[in-house]
Amino acid sequence: MCEAETALARGDLDSATAAAEAGLRLAQQTGHRRPVPIGNLVMAVSATRQLDPNVGLVYANRLRDNALFGHSVLMPGQCAWAVAQALEARDGTASIASLLVDLVHDKAMTQELLVSQPAAAAWLVRAAQKLGDETIAARIVSLAGELGARNRTFRTIQASAAHAKGLHEKNAAVLDRASALHLDRWARASALEDASAVRFTRRSEHDQAAELLKRAADGYRTVGARRDVLRVASKLRELEVNGGRIPLKSGRFRRAGSQLTDTEYAVADLVSQGLTNGRVARQLFISPHTVAFHLKKIFRKLDVSSRVELASTWTRLPEEHTTAPAPVAGYAGA
After folding, report:
1. Percent of the chain surpassing pLDDT 90
2. How far is CA 130 from the centre of its chain?
């Protein structure tokens, strides 16, 4: 489980998932409960970022049960954050409004979360901004700043404070500093994406904004954060950069069916999990009309005629190892 936590802290989702799965199997075999919540936390966060919202919620619910029955060695802040990420990914930011208020209301719990999960500060600020809650956003920035002031030699805490502050103040220079400080590759990509958004508001910096966005996409792709890759691809389409085409890293395994494009594969995978067109659209950052269009092509390519038949066929397709695609066009890599 230590290996899983370390891999997640680096932003290496595939390694984190593999280690957590192995740890959970071993814990089940030996009857040792203490490390189980850590494995559930890693699986919940990793699955959410890898575009498996239902799986993410399964592990988030297990994590909540661990806390309820007193089996959790984790502090409640980490548990609440894992649940919030999974719910937000599946149902949208509005679904976590009350959970966000409860989490931030407890200073000790929030500070515990910010220390243990450096990517959490910016995520919470971003969620608060989407909800239009300036009070919560400012509180997170203040708490992250306090931690940074007391721990000046801890790079991850400095990165967390800078990221939250830069996002809140819409300060691209501070966000650049945060991206340079982050050791977590997912958090680094997130800071690059946030810096791009700030620079895009200035017409003279549009080219730089596009370059930062491509770097963010490459960072997300490298760690297997498929949901984030798709969001950035949507933004690149808006900017008309590379047509918004970014190769997806599907994880350690991908179901056979190479006739499907990356987007078709993602649509088929989510539909087979029971998601509606609207929810699939929200996950992939495309319109429901586009989901329906892809679904017609999927039905034809897989020779199925309904969503039920697709789900049945999908579970029977063998899994195959995947290889990492080429970097995002126009960016050589960090």
Report:
1. 44
2. 16
* b/e per residue 140-174 (b: at least 16 CB within 10 A): bbebbbebbeeeeeeebbbbbbbbbbbbbeebbeb
Q: How many other C-beta atoms can be found within 10 angstroms of the C-beta atom of residue 276?
A: 13
- In 3D, which of 265, 270, 243, 241 has the Cα closest to residue 254? 265
Q: Which two tokens stand for residue 206?
A: 């549009």
CA–CA separation, 29 and 40 (whole Å): 16
Nearest to 209 by CA among 177, 236, 242: 236
Report the distance separating Cα 321 and Cα 20, nearest Å.
19
- The set of residues, in sequence order, having a beta carbon less than 8 Å from that of 186 and lying 6+ positions away, is 11, 13, 49, 119, 219, 220, 223, 225, 228
pLDDT tens digits, one per residue of 33-92:
888 888 999 999 999 988 887 788 889 888 877 665 555 555 678 888 888 998 888 888
Name the one residue in this structure whose structure tokens are 């290496």: 12
Indicate the pTM of the whole model: 0.77
The whole-angstrom separation of Cα 311 and Cα 304 is 10
Q: How far apart are the first and last CA of the chain?
A: 29
Residue bearing tokens 């699955």: 47
Burial 58-77 (b: 16+ CB within 10 A, else e): bbbebbbebbeeebbebbbb
φ and ψ of 106, to 5 deg: -95, 105
